[in-house]
Design a protein that fits this description.
Elements: H1 28-43, H2 51-79, H3 81-89, H4 99-119, H5 121-154, H6 171-182, H7 190-224, H8 239-255, H9 264-299, H10 313-329, H11 332-362
Helix pairs in contact: 1-2, 1-4, 1-10, 1-11, 2-3, 2-4, 4-5, 4-6, 5-6, 6-7, 6-8, 7-8, 8-9, 8-10, 9-10, 10-11
C-alpha cells in the first residue's frame, strides 16, 4: 500500500521529493478514525463526566483534519496530476479512494451527534445533510468504479488479495448508517420512507459485496500465510463492515417508526437484533485473531506506519454496533462491551495520532518509501 503502509523512514535530504506528491487517498483514514471517536463517545450508554465535551473537541479536530486533507489532495491533483491518476491504476492504492466518501460521512455523522452543541441543531443537520449527500454519491461511484477497474485493469491474483479491498465496497454501508440519523429530520411522508429504504438498499449492496470478498481474504491468509509486516494492521479492516452493518441496522430500526407504519417497523427492530448479535459475535472473534496477528508482527519488528489507522475506524464501528445493540436490547452486557471497545478505540487513536504527528514533524510520512504488495512478500 504505497500511501497507507510505508514505514517511518526519513528520505535523504538530497532526494528533494515534493511532500504533496505522496499524499495519497489513504490520508482520509486519519479523518475517519478521528470522527468515529466523537460519534462513539457521544452514544456511549454509560455516563462519564466530561465525555460529551471531549467528544465535541475530537469532532472539531476531525473537521480540521478533513479540511486539511481535502486541501492537500486538491493541491496534489492540481500540481501532480500524473501521480494522482496513477493511483487509480495501482491495485495497491486504488481501494483507498473509498476512504474519501467514508471520511465525509464520518464527519457528517459526528456533526449530527455532537456538532449541534457548537453549531446549533439546525446547522448541524444541514452540514450533515450536505456531507451525507456528497459522501453517498462518491461512495456509490467508488463501489462501482473500483471493482470495475480491478476486473478490467488490475487483474489481481489470489496472492494479491488484501483486506484493503473492502474499502471500495464499504462506503455505501457507512452511508446507510449515516442516513438513518437524517430520516427523522425529513418531512413526514414518502421522503422519509424513501430515504429509509434507500439506506437499507445500500446496506444490502455493501453486505453482499463484503460477503463475496471475505472468502477471498480468508483464503489468501490461509493459503499464502500472513501479510507482510507493514501490512498487518490491514487485517483489522474486516471489522469495518461487521461493526458498521450492525450499527446501520440498529440505527435504521430506530428511525423506522418515524418513516413506515404497520408491522414493518417492529419487524425491522427484530431484524436489527437477529442480525446484529451473531455478526457482533463474529466481529469479536475476528478482533481476537487480528490482535494475535498484530502482536506477532510487533514481535517481528513491525514499524509504525500510516496503516496503523486501520486500528481506529473499524474498532469504532464495533463500538457503535455494540451501542446499537445495547439500546435495542437493554442488556448491560452490551453496554459494558461498548465501554470496553471504546476504551480500546481511544487507546488506539491516541497511539496512532501521536505516531502520525511525529511522522509528519519528522518529514517521514508524506515521502516514505512504498510498502510491499501483498503478493510480493511473505513473513512467517
Amino acid at each position: 500500500m504505497a500511501t497507507l503502509a510505508h514505514p517511518l523512514v526519513r528520505p535523504p535530504a538530497a532526494a528533494k521529493v515534493p511532500a504533496l506528491r505522496h499524499v495519497g487517498p489513504a490520508w482520509y483514514a486519519t479523518v475517519m478514525g478521528t470522527a468515529v471517536v466523537a460519534s462513539a463517545g457521544a452514544a456511549l450508554p454509560l455516563r462519564i463526566p466530561g465525555l460529551r465535551t471531549a467528544a465535541t473537541a475530537v469532532w472539531a479536530l476531525s473537521v480540521v483534519l478533513l479540511a486539511a486533507v481535502l486541501a492537500a489532495r486538491a493541491t496534489r491533483w492540481a500540481r501532480h496530476r500524473d501521480a494522482a491518476r496513477a493511483d487509480l491504476l495501482d491495485p495497491a492504492v486504488a481501494p483507498f479512494y473509498g476512504c474519501l466518501p467514508m471520511a465525509l460521512l464520518a464527519v457528517g455523522g459526528a456533526t449530527l451527534a455532537v456538532g449541534g452543541d457548537v453549531l446549533g441543531q439546525r446547522a448541524a443537520v444541514l452540514v450533515d445533510g450536505v456531507l451525507f449527500g456528497a459522501g453517498t454519491v462518491l461512495g456509490l461511484a467508488v463501489a462501482v468504479t473500483l471493482p470495475y477497474l480491478m476486473v478490467v485493469r488490475h487483474r489481481p491474483t489470489l496472492a494479491d488479495v488484501s483486506p484493503v479491498w473492502l474499502l471500495q465496497v464499504v462506503p455505501p454501508l457507512v452511508a446507510a448508517g449515516a442516513g438513518a440519523g437524517l430520516v427523522p429530520h425529513l418531512p413526514a411522508g414518502q421522503g422519509r420512507e424513501a430515504l429509509l429504504l434507500g439506506c437499507y438498499a445500500m446496506f444490502g449492496l455493501s453486505l453482499l459485496a463484503t460477503l463475496a470478498l471475505l472468502p477471498l481474504i480468508v483464503g489468501r491468509l490461509t493459503l499464502h500465510g500472513p501479510l507482510p509486516l507493514t501490512l498487518t494492521p490491514a487485517v483489522f479492516l474486516v471489522l469495518g463492515p461487521l461493526g458498521q452493518s450492525t450499527t446501520a441496522v440498529g440505527r435504521l430500526a430506530d428511525a423506522a417508526p418515524t418513516a413506515v407504519g404497520g408491522s414493518l417497523a417492529p419487524a425491522l427492530g427484530a431484524f436489527a437484533v437477529v442480525y446484529g448479535v451473531p455478526v457482533m459475535g463474529f466481529a469479536l472473534l475476528w478482533l481476537a485473531l487480528s490482535a494475535a496477528s498484530v502482536v506477532r508482527a510487533l514481535r517481528r519488528g513491525m514499524p509504525f506506519s500510516l496503516g496503523w489507522w486501520a486500528f481506529t475506524f473499524p474498532i469504532g464501528t464495533c463500538v457503535t454496533g455494540a451501542e446499537a445493540l445495547a439500546h435495542r436490547t437493554g442488556l448491560a452486557a452490551f453496554q459494558w462491551l461498548a465501554a470496553g471497545l471504546f476504551a480500546l478505540l481511544v487507546s488506539a487513536w491516541v497511539t496512532v495520532f501521536a505516531g502520525t504527528v511525529r511522522g509528519l514533524l519528522g518529514g517521514a510520512l508524506p515521502a516514505g518509501p512504498p510498502a510491499p504488495r501483498p503478493g510480493t512478500a511473505r513473513t512467517r
